[in-house]
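Notes on consecutive records. When two proteins share a document, each keeps its own sequence and its own token line. Never mix them. Below: protein one.
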Amino acid sequence: MENLTKGIYRKQGILSISLILAVNAIISGALIFIKDDLGITLSQAEFLVSLPSIATIIAILLSEPVSRKVGIKKCISLGLFLVGTSAFLPIISRTYISIFMSRLILGFGVGLYNGHAASLINIFYKEDEAASLHGVRNSFEYIGQMMLLFIAGLILEISWPLVFITYSLAFLILIFFNLTVEDVIHPKTLAEEKFKITSQTIFYMVFAGIMVMDTTAVTVRFPLIATRALGEGASINMLTMILPLCGMVTGFLFGRINKKLRAKTILLGILLYAFKNIFISILGENIIVYMIAMALTAISQSLCFPYMFAEVARVARSSSSRIVNNLIFVGCNIGGFLASSFLSIITNIFKLQGPTTAFMAFSVLYLGFFAVYFYEYLSVRSYRRV
């Protein structure tokens, strides 16, 4: 009974990390106030949202050496501590430099535990249980996003610098994580495993980057569509909630879906991605169509990401698995950082008209990913028949 209780709390401790993963955009509602109060341009204010991604990429690449030196648990704890600490600089000093530094600290902290949020599941759990937990982990990411956005919205009514205090939730997660999850010691070192970046790892990175780029692009472009359809007084934040809500529900159902579909799970997710982008590129200026597309984006992501992380556990072991997960998250952050630029480049190259036409480019990319996975699926079936 004691081991069962310990196991339940350990799962909750591991999953709690993901509550504070998708946190870059929490300050989005305060950007206009930051712009006006500090006398900066809108582009300078918007840059603060994507700035943490730069530090996150650096920290992700450093997290494996840090983990080998001090242990995974201490690496995650350090990351959570830095995220919590980032909450106070903008409150102490209401300047652009202090916010800039706060965002770098935030990004670096997230990068230290980003990959471990998935790696710990692969370390402690196997096969269907691990796959199911990857789906739940994805849901926790959406839950954290919704919860922090809601809290930030309430605090914004008081004062915009206080919005940053939302990140202090990391201290509570730090305490809970340390009480419920034991440290992990691996007998093999990275040198013994002789890790090499394979074509499969690069594929995972690119695939993850495109998925996050797609989700970010859909989110960034939505205010324009909503304002055109409903006017400037539209409650854009509340309408945006459809994305994390659908992602959360699908994540909780992932275990059951994956047990039924197995390898077809990823094929379904990619097809939904492709269909969604064709749908939004043609009819996306209609807000109802756009919101349906947002829902499909979240559903697709909640099918593909958990499957991919579970797949990593099957093809890599120990430190290699952790490094692959870290590289996947590097791809995610690069994709999120380049989302707006991607839409602009596609629009300019093909001289497209309309705010959503450029999304057709994503459908082409997903059809390529589908071809790769479908070929692999047919190869595995042929091998089993032999």
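Protein two starts on the next line and is unrelated to protein one.
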Amino acid sequence: MDYNHIGNFFEKLKQTLFKNEEYYDVVSATITNHIASPIDTKSIKIKGSVIYIQGSPILRNEVLIHKTGILNDLGAMLPSKKFIDIR
């Protein structure tokens, strides 16, 4: 019995998961460059083209103050993924 189709499925799944991890790392690094405190990838959620930040209200407000700069930098760094909002 041939199980290559299952192996191909898991290979595609692995590539998709690693691509998503790269997005989280780039978003975290870009936000950290704009604000005073570092932000962990666990406090970032990406749904579609919107980035959700979980954390203290002070952290979220600081991110929202620098929102346009962060979105512009992300657009330059990740041209294949368009982010339109940070919440």
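For the record: The radius of gyration is 16 Å.
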